[in-house]
Every structure is written in C-alpha cells, then in structure tokens.
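[recover] target loaded
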C-alpha cells in the first residue's frame, strides 16, 4: 500500500479507486491507520466471502476527505461517496462488475 500512495503523491493523484481488494471493512480500518499518516483516508466495502475477487475501495487525499458527507455501500461491488461543497455536491463511484455472474451484475 505504501508504494501505491508514494506513486499517488508523485503523480499528484488525490483519488484512487481499487477493485478486487479481497479486504473486508475490518481489515480496511487497520490499513486506514497507515493511510492516515500519509494524508489519505480509505473507504472499504465488505468482501463477499463466497467469491474471491470481491471488494472495492476508494482512497481519498485528506484535502478532499474532509468534504465527505455520505458514504453508501451496495454489497461488495459498489461504493458511492458524496463530497459536499458550498453549493455543489460531487459523487465519486467505484464499481466492480464481475461479468461472469449475471445475478450480481443485475
């Protein structure tokens, strides 16, 4: 994770979306402790225990994370984060669509 954040800092990347994390919310909280010291905050969906390759995450620089007002998870495959500014709301969505399972895709 440190290499990813180093790359993001070098490239001036403030929002990173991850798919197929295989990390649940509890593990994500531990990772957030490391991310916080690097000026980033992570938002982690739960993983689907039956399927490897599930779980999504959004990692946002703290400059923008302070504007997060609402975080919505839809299963293990979608995160919708709302950033609230004066007179403006921006939604950031990270989705993973495993196209081999039509029930999940629907």
């Amino acid at each position: 994770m440190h290499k990813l954040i180093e790359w993001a800092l070098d490239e001036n990347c403030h929002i990173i979306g991850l798919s197929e994390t295989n990390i649940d919310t509890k593990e994500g909280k531990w990772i957030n402790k490391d991310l916080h010291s690097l000026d980033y905050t992570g938002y982690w969906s739960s993983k689907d225990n039956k399927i490897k390759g599930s779980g999504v995450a959004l990692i946002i620089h703290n400059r923008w994370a302070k504007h997060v007002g609402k975080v919505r998870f839809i299963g293990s495959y979608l995160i919708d984060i709302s950033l609230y500014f004066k007179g403006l709301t921006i939604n950031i969505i990270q989705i993973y669509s495993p196209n081999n399972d039509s029930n999940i895709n629907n």
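[recover] notes: The mean pLDDT is 85.
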